[in-house]
Amino acid sequence: MPQSVTTDDLIRRRDRAFGAGARLFYDRPLHLVRGEGAYVFDVDGRRYVDMYNNVPCVGHAHPRVVEAMARQQATLNTHNRYLHEGAIALAERLTALQGVTECVVFSCSGTEAVENALRMARIATGARGIVCTDATYHGSNAWVGGLTRVGEAGPVDRDARAIAFPQTLRPITPGLTGEALTDAYLDRLDDAIDDLKASGSGFAAFIVCSILANEGLPDIPPGFMPRATQRVHAAGGLMIADEVQAGYGRTGQWWGYDAVGFRPDIVVTGKPMGAGLPLGATAASRAVVEGFRAETRYFNTFASSPLQAAVGMAVLDVIEQEGLVANVARVGAALKGALLNRRGRWDAIIDLRGVGLFLGIELVDATGEPDAALAFAIVCGLRDKGFLVSNAGIFNNVVKIRPPLVFSMADADAFLAAWDGVVAERRG
Amino acid sequence: MPQSVTTDDLIRRRDRAFGAGARLFYDRPLHLVRGEGAYVFDVDGRRYVDMYNNVPCVGHAHPRVVEAMARQQATLNTHNRYLHEGAIALAERLTALQGVTECVVFSCSGTEAVENALRMARIATGARGIVCTDATYHGSNAWVGGLTRVGEAGPVDRDARAIAFPQTLRPITPGLTGEALTDAYLDRLDDAIDDLKASGSGFAAFIVCSILANEGLPDIPPGFMPRATQRVHAAGGLMIADEVQAGYGRTGQWWGYDAVGFRPDIVVTGKPMGAGLPLGATAASRAVVEGFRAETRYFNTFASSPLQAAVGMAVLDVIEQEGLVANVARVGAALKGALLNRRGRWDAIIDLRGVGLFLGIELVDATGEPDAALAFAIVCGLRDKGFLVSNAGIFNNVVKIRPPLVFSMADADAFLAAWDGVVAERRG
Question: Is residue B210 within 8 Å of B260, Cβ to Cβ?
Fold first, then answer.
């Protein structure tokens, strides 16, 4: 199917206006013009099932969100140095939902929220050292990006250490399983903390995506997260849960840290919070947040605004009123079960994992090596059949499934038929 | 006038939800519930003329902005790895308006846009050194904030140097005026560049708010900005204009760099762009932007979205269709003239300066020393009369006037009457 002239022209205009190098998805870029629920539509009117986007978590163009956004912008939208109930109420609701935090610092993105979490940890502990995992991504600015460079030699920040991310598929010590494998990864954490302390940086925090999304959603050795939390606390540090991808119902529970069983000290949220309105939050205990405020006098022009608050509340309303967390658990389990049934039918699938509506299908070639080209071919084949997924993971060989939370059982059935078709074409 | 119980309760809830230390404006905080044009309304229905806020540049709750925001959110709002015309068209329009740039990298705030500008300059020059002025503010994150700490010892970044900001009121060498004074400030710039080069950092850029807003809008010695640009270029660096406050018609021209007569290499915009929707932009030549994209692979989840584009275009539409740049020039000149007439009537006014709808009234005590307490008293007195301004500048003794661009001649007349009243009360 050739791209229309309009689309080709638009690609040229885009390269001129943004400068060449602003990446587009897929082998043939998608020119989208409309979205509704779990579906997006291209310029030719073709419908795609969106199985990639976590930002429009309540579905594209949800009328409740549109209405809240329009009503608040038509009423008042200012910065937070005037009193306004909106963001206060959102902070109260967020901390009540999280159960482990007391106070909130709002921002405009996950990157800003992660940076504020790191600053909170450093101020609270008086130390600078940060431990992260070695194939992670926590944000795009210079500091956060430099801390957690994906697929490069390691963190640029001299106060950071990256440890091997915990997984069962390719264990750090071949042959180890169960608690022994957990112990091996915990030893790496201890080593990193010791190294930071010996270097003079001290140890401030371990930051981790609760479900290791950018690592490709590995199955985590048993008890790693709660036991890592114990070790972090014993070493005087704080545990930061990056819930930008893991939170807001994605796993079929409200928070990723509940899904993997630990209680963080600082919770970072972002992408889904505002259904496309820039909105992030860093939540922690009163002492940690007030220490941060006293030290930094942090102010963010666009954050904690009545607009962020109204939209943020509408998103939570929809998740609760439409029962989306339960929908994620139900549809996610059914989809995972159906894909597990297919695993034995195609040797290329070495692993099928994930939880809720965040699944990964890891593909290998005939020799058992990670096959990124195959994953990309599958992604493009599914796009041609009207289903949008992507490839991810440390080897880019994991087909990533992460639809809006409104993704239905009927959508899942349609996807499975398309999956079978694409696989049949690959197997010839 | 005592605060209502509701307001006191809300302050307590706010301290609990945000943690104590999130600053509120004024001696008695304003509890706002509605805005319209240049006016905001508190919970008791009292109207205030907004003479502070530059974010709602086209006026609070402008129906054209509300309509564009709602329509786009109801149609499609995704990230920028799908093709969509919106942000492309906004980039084309922005660079055409700027006249000195070719390509745009959108972001969600002035802070992000400044950071991207600094990274562009470093990548383009291969050097790390940044020169800024010594009482500036370019953003809130760790790197940008550390580069430009206001009122502290100087930049935290070892690759940064701060120079005395150029001014005629308190010249760096007492007694110097005119071109000789300009030369004295340019020598400081040369010294800073030389020092960076000697240190091994090299010289990447001079970043400056075109109208030195945070320094208190000083009258700049003649020709400083264009001559500084020449020296920066001769030293192999780039000139970054921070137009977050200076741009978008604020001076009665589209851009602050036009008002002060220089042509920057990189233009940073923010606050007014989205009328309260988080939106920032960094614009430069194709070579500079493409170098940045190639090196950083920058991606920002919420930036370049159809929503940012629709709102950004609506703001530009309103500015053009309502003739707001001309309104700023006309009302700003009249207001400045009227205030200049009042200068001789009150010894506390040592200086009255600014351009367009961005004016500063600098106040001193009987001995001629900066009087921050007097400025704050004036600010609170004006609030009690229904006019919202603030105090700013390196000594916090400058009454800052910076209303939405829709501020009218009638608003200006009403303000002058209130001003006279407050001054009469102070003089007894």
Answer: yes
